Amino acid sequence: MFSKFQNHIVSRFPFLENQKIFLAVSGGLDSMVLLHLLKQLPYEIAVLHCNFQLRGLESFGDQNFIQEYCDQNNIPIYTTQFDTDAFAKDYKLSTQVAARELRYSWFYELLETKNFDYILTAHHADDNLETFIINLTRGTGLEGLIGIPEQNDRIIRPLLPFSREEIFKYAEDNNIEWREDSSNASNKYLRNKIRHDLVPMLKEINPNFLNAFQKTQSYLQESQAMVEDASIMIYQQVAKEEGDDIHFDLNQLKKLPNYKSYLYQWLNEFGFLAWNDIYDLVDGQSGKQVLSSEFRLLKNRNILILSPISEMSEKEEFEINANDTEVNFPLKLKLCNVSHITIDSNKAIFVDAEKIQFPLVLRKWKEGDVFYPFGMEGKSKKVSKLFKDEKLSLIEKEKMWILCSDNQIVWVVGIRQDDRFRIENTTNRILKIELES
Amino acid sequence: MFSKFQNHIVSRFPFLENQKIFLAVSGGLDSMVLLHLLKQLPYEIAVLHCNFQLRGLESFGDQNFIQEYCDQNNIPIYTTQFDTDAFAKDYKLSTQVAARELRYSWFYELLETKNFDYILTAHHADDNLETFIINLTRGTGLEGLIGIPEQNDRIIRPLLPFSREEIFKYAEDNNIEWREDSSNASNKYLRNKIRHDLVPMLKEINPNFLNAFQKTQSYLQESQAMVEDASIMIYQQVAKEEGDDIHFDLNQLKKLPNYKSYLYQWLNEFGFLAWNDIYDLVDGQSGKQVLSSEFRLLKNRNILILSPISEMSEKEEFEINANDTEVNFPLKLKLCNVSHITIDSNKAIFVDAEKIQFPLVLRKWKEGDVFYPFGMEGKSKKVSKLFKDEKLSLIEKEKMWILCSDNQIVWVVGIRQDDRFRIENTTNRILKIELES
Fold first, then answer.
1. Which of B332, B371, B324, B359 is nearest to B348 (CA)?
2. Which residues does chain A have within 8 Å of residue B192's beta carbon, measured at their own beta carbons?
3. Is residue B228 one of the residues assigned to a domain?
4. Which strand (E) or helix (H) includes residue B349?
5. How far is the C-alpha of B196 from the C-alpha of A217, rounded, in Å?
6. CB atoms A223 and B137 under 8 Å
7. What whole-number percentage of chain A has pLDDT above 90?
8. Among the three residues B279, B308, B337, which one is the final residue of a domain in this structure?
């Protein structure tokens, strides 16, 4: 006869039948119960165990414990070891977040490589409640309150409706062994306080508290889905993707009384922290910007432009030699000798090959750059003035390249040729330089 | 020198300057502090006090206490008394909800009649926290967690950032007197348990808990606003208002994976309770319906139709006399003698005036109604069959009227005339009966 846990699993997830199922097992109470439950069901199962190496020998003890259990019970097992601390440091993550990232990316990798269908984890109702309260004590948004879902994608948490108490009782009744986790003492202290003092008080107020709480979380999950719907619908009205950039139309955006909420939703994932500065941009001066570690948000007239910060050094220079017929980086250029001028456009220039001096140099523009624009009868002009006249945004300006011959500007690439190198009646050899986009 | 409370009020709500401001004062700690704070500020204030008559003499004691305080301090005061229990019973509300309804509707009425600008209430941070926890223990949605806002419309709650402790300290420091409220003992017990046991524990976990919590609530309020945005945007895509009815396009609706959340948002205010039945309607049989006390939700092919349940009795009949030239209720009809048939449409019939017998009677159709449709060569037909052929929805059928002469059907109004009363070669007088829409 099946337990109530097993009945729940079979009826709630009928699609698991005949599927290949991984169980994520740490060796603690919850996952050992999950393993015990599943090995009696007619599924094809295998165990996954991550050793996060956070508790020295204890971590290896857990690993051995599970390995032995699986060997004795003829259950296939895959284990891996992570240097979690190093990963956390490299990516500036908390240990907990680092461990989660490592765990789930390994899970998904194994689903693919071992050709399995689902992963079951042993999260239960009290896990969600404790996380809810922890986040509440710290201050959180809706996302911090909705809890981990019963299923997302191919990860299923079949014990989520059950309390720790019920799981503990099953373990006792069935003589299940498990390993206690001594890790994360400070977080443990907090969880213990919540578990032993706060939660019992809530259950005293309402003996059915855990049920009421699960209903609350399912309502909050519905609300969160609607928040995401709103976010997407407004994004479609307001945002336009241009290459790597995203343009947000401020005239549209500002029609919404709660536009800050939307900016937060959209920009949160790009690592921004200075939210008030971002909100100030909306009514701020054109040209102001806010940076995250990898992205820039620029106010440009009535548009907010989000762009990745180029990793190219401002100082880098790229040489073009006399026998080069093409350049592939940082721009795509084609160079060839021609007998006459063909089509005239900003994308190509024709220069007197005898006036220029190889190697030509491609570099970013800099403040103070001056050149002699073609057609201005030998008058000089600041490149910055040219950009202003062309109404380039800060980001567009940063993307501009200058082609030089012996420190003299030959071409503000894609925009304007210099007068000094243009072909004349006396020109013998014409070099065509063409920008390919 | 102003207190921190007063500084907050002046800087946070600068628009209150030169406005006429009501203070809602119960006589308890919080509102007496609010009154004390406000009477020192250069605003024009008046006090509002509701006597809900829920605690007999004690309620009148509160009223007298405030009346005396205002008289001594030369503050205008308006009081009113409600039979809260009777109101709660009449409208099937909890005492608490009834009191809130009565209070706020009286507040808004006085804003209008006394020509005041704002109402200030004394809610503070712990009120919001306690309500949050109470709702949490009972199971709630996002709306139950967002708390009462600092301002909605013309109601302002300037003490919301402050804790009960801070307010209590101010009262002590300034020798403010107040009345203790002994009411609502069961709710008091719950609030006291939360106030004295649970909240201190949360503050032990994080001494800054109340601040963190306020941040949480402001995030949740933002989320709630976005939920409402989504609800409105999807409504505009899916719903169409037709007279008193609302039609929801199920083909559109079912494209949303979370359409149930939207149905809940839209239909909640119409008093429905049987949510699973409503969700089942979406894929249910055409013709099925779910009722609330005043509304009906009907599945009709690919549409869900929401309509008010007509208060018209099914049995009511309306007579039309020989000299009537028009009928205004329950339908608009025009009757006139004509010399010949003009335009033929379903909206008008021409009958042989000598065949009919006044008073004509307008009544709802009933099961078993039979008539002889015009043009069917004397064959009879059930009215229900006619409706079926015409593909009328249940609601459309319910709106149908029958015009009778001496219990014989003359016209299924707007749809089909009876053959027995049509004009013939022998007709002397033609009566035109026209439906005006």
1. B332
2. none
3. no
4. strand B348-352
5. 26
6. no
7. 65
8. B308
- Return the sign of the alpha-carbon dihedral for residues B215, B216, B221, B227: positive
Domain count within chain B:
3
Check whether residue B338 and residue B425 sit in a common domain.
yes
Chain centroid to Cα A291, Å, comes to 16
CA nearest B195: which of B221, B223, B165? B165
Distance from CA of A281 to the nearest CA of B (A): 20
Cα distance from A139 to chain B (closest Cα, Å)? 4
Cβ of B102: how many Cβ atoms within 10 Å? 19
Residues 6+ apart with CB under 8 A from A60: A51
The token pair that represents B179 in the structure block = 């009345």
Residues B134, B191: Cα–Cα separation, whole Å? 8
**Shortest Cα distance, chain A CAs vs residue B133, angstroms:** 9
B408 in the same domain as B358: yes
State how far the Cα of B200 lies from the Cα of B188, in Å rounded to an integer: 17
Q: Determine the residue type at A68.
A: E
Ramachandran class of A157: left when φ > 0, alpha when ψ lies in -120 to 50, beta otherwise? beta
B311 compared with A237, residue with greater pLDDT: A237
- B209 contact residues in A (CB cutoff 8 A): 137
Interface predicted TM-score (ipTM): 0.72
Q: What is the pLDDT of residues B335-393, one digit of tens each?
A: 999 988 876 678 899 999 999 999 999 998 888 899 999 888 889 999 999 998 888 88
User: Considering only CB atoms, which chain B residues are within 8 Å of A275?
Assistant: none
> Do A159 and A14 share a domain, yes or no?
yes
pLDDT greater at residue A64 or residue A318: A64
Report which residue type is found at A87: F
The confidence band for B96, taking pLDDT boundaries of 50, 70 and 90, is confident
Domain co-membership, B120 together with B198: yes
The CA-based diameter of chain A, rounded to the nearest angstrom, is 101
Picking from A211, A322, A33, A227, the residue whose alpha carbon sits closest to that of residue B233 is A227
- Model confidence at B112: pLDDT above 90: yes
For residue B231, tell me if it sits in a domain: no
* pLDDT tens-digit series, residues A184-237: 445 667 888 899 899 999 999 999 999 999 999 999 999 999 999 999 999 999
Q: What is the pLDDT of residues B126-174, one digit of tens each?
A: 999 999 999 999 999 999 999 998 998 899 999 999 999 999 999 999 9
Give the CATH number of the domain where residue B117 resides.
3.40.50.620
User: Are A141 and B258 in contact (CB < 8 Å)?
Assistant: no
State whether B186 and B88 are in the same domain: yes
Residue A51 belongs to what domain range?
A: 4-125+140-184
CA dihedral B253, B256, B261, B267 (to 10 degrees): -10
CA-nearest of A134, A159, A158 to A144 is A134
For residue B286, give the amino acid letter.
S
Order of strands, sheet of B289-291, starting from the edge strand that comes earlier in the sequence: B239-242, B245-249, B303-308, B295-300, B289-291
Same domain, B163 and B290: no
For the sheet containing B326-327, what is the strand order? B326-327, B333-338, B430-435, B348-352
| Residue count (chain A) | 437
